[in-house]
Design brief:
Elements: H1 5-16, H2 35-48, E1 52-56, E2 62-66, E3 75-80, E4 95-97, E5 105-106, E6 114-115, H3 121-124, E7 131-133, H4 142-160, E8 169-174, H5 187-191, E9 195-201, E10 207-208, E11 213-222, H6 238-248, E12 265-273, E13 277-286, H7 289-308, E14 314-323, H8 327-330, H9 335-346, H10 361-367, E15 374-376, E16 388-390, H11 391-410
Helix pairs in contact: 1-4, 1-11, 4-11, 6-7, 9-11
Bound molecules: zinc ion (ZN).
Zinc ion binds next to helix 4.
């Protein structure tokens, strides 16, 4: 395969330098206007390279068509343009280390940081590769600008070589994936794909089709508020009741830090308020529907038990569905997974399918009728200052994208 690494590095470093962080506390869609800076750039680049139907939807997604030249399913390729709100993403200064020597990598803007193959064994496999990372003060944003760079390079290549076999292909660049709001209800229809892939995974070989099933929970505790000087026998302090709920929930089991692999958890993410009213937010996760329901039931039982100790308080627990394990839909038709696995093997890449302890845009999309596994890009140590990626890993992901397009056209 042609060496696409110069283009991939150019695109990744340009895209990472653009701040497009999302914000979970914003009520708007997209959550931040800066994401539209990325979207307008992508729309202009897609138009310039000859893509068709280039649109920036009013929910902030960029869509485009690469026309097909063979029959076959319409295949969608997705990546998200937002970066994670968990770490500084302003003034990202991407750096390229050509021909990595296998040693420790230091960071010019934070001398205390170091990225070593001892701490990150995957790095040890990348000797001789060209690596990209930030300067120490920010994340890099390869999650998911790597996916964006891979798909933009694939689009440019396919449009420049109209004879390469491909069915109709659709591209979607979504905002707000990191805050769980990447898939608008109109996206499945607007995408118009029979199935799709997100390029939002890590290690070379990852072809993921199992995610958590996820609910959110909000517990509200209303106490009785009275001037403390006149409170005898009357005041009910919501803070004490909130503390009792947290104390009663499992702590040595069923938390993110005490579970692994296929175990789910109840995770308190946020608590705020005061003596008169407290709010606690939770996320509930499990790979199976009944396991998820059991976690919701446990939380409700704990709230009811604490409520029973203080009838003057009002405690409510509201559980809201977030996304579901995509395996439920994919296992009845594994075509997209099989196609990606065949394409990977054709490139000499051994497919690797591990359940994701999280969700992707594909979880929602699959549930909404567009089966959508997640594919590797190479991104590592995401959401923090040690984030890095190998250009040669991105090249492998690009190869996978092109091989999927080719096989989708030639196998039908
Ligand atoms: Zn991502």
């Amino acid at each position: 395969m042609e060496d696409f690494t110069p283009e991939l590095i150019d695109r990744l470093t340009r895209y990472c330098a653009i701040d497009s962080q999302s914000d979970a506390d914003s009520p708007t869609a997209p959550s931040t206007a800066i994401q539209l800076d990325m979207q307008r750039l992508l729309a202009a680049e897609l138009t310039a390279m000859g893509a068709q139907d280039v649109t920036l939807t009013d929910y902030g997604t960029v869509l485009a068509t690469i026309p097909g030249n063979r029959p076959g399913p319409v295949v969608g390729f997705l990546a998200h343009v937002d970066t994670a709100p968990q770490f500084n993403a302003t003034n990202v200064r991407p750096r390229v280390i050509k021909g990595y020597n296998g040693g420790a990598i230091t960071f010019p803007d934070d001398p205390a940081l170091s990225l070593t193959p001892e701490d990150f064994p995957y790095l040890a496999e990348k000797r001789g590769h060209d690596l990209i990372m930030a300067s120490g003060l920010t994340l890099l944003g390869a999650d998911d600008k790597a996916g964006v760079a891979i798909l933009m390079t694939a689009a440019r290549h396919l449009l420049a070589n109209p004879d390469l076999p491909r069915p109709g292909l659709r591209l979607a660049f979504t905002p707000d994936e990191e805050i769980g709001r990447g898939v608008d209800s109109r996206l499945p229809r607007d995408l118009g794909a029979d199935f799709a892939y997100t390029f939002d995974g890590g290690k070379v070989g990852e072809i993921e089709y199992e995610t958590f099933s996820a609910d959110g929970a909000l517990v509200t505790i209303k106490g009785v508020s009275i001037h403390p000087g006149y409170a005898t026998g009357k005041l009910v302090n919501a803070i004490h009741l909130a503390a009792r709920i947290i104390q009663t929930l499992p702590q040595a089991t069923l938390t993110p830090e005490t579970t692994a692999d296929r175990e789910g958890f109840i995770h308190a993410t946020d608590m705020n308020g005061g003596a008169s009213e407290m709010r606690i937010k939770f996320i509930l996760r499990d790979f199976e529907r009944d396991g998820l329901a059991a976690k919701g039931a446990l939380l409700q039982q704990v709230c009811a038990a604490v409520a029973a100790t203080e009838p003057r308080a009002e405690i409510t627990c509201t559980i809201t569905p977030q996304y579901r394990n995509m395996r439920y839909w994919l296992e009845s038709d594994m075509t997209p997974v099989d196609l990606a696995r065949e394409a990977a093997r054709s490139l000499g890449i051994e497919p690797l399918s591990v359940p994701i302890r999280g969700g992707t845009d594909g979880s929602r999309l699959t549930e909404m009728g567009v089966p959508c596994p997640n594919l590797f890009t190479g991104m590592q140590n995401i959401h923090g200052p040690l984030e890095w990626i190998s250009a040669q890993d991105m090249q492998a992901a690009l190869g996978l994208c092109l091989a999927i397009a080719d096989r989708a056209a030639t196998r039908s």
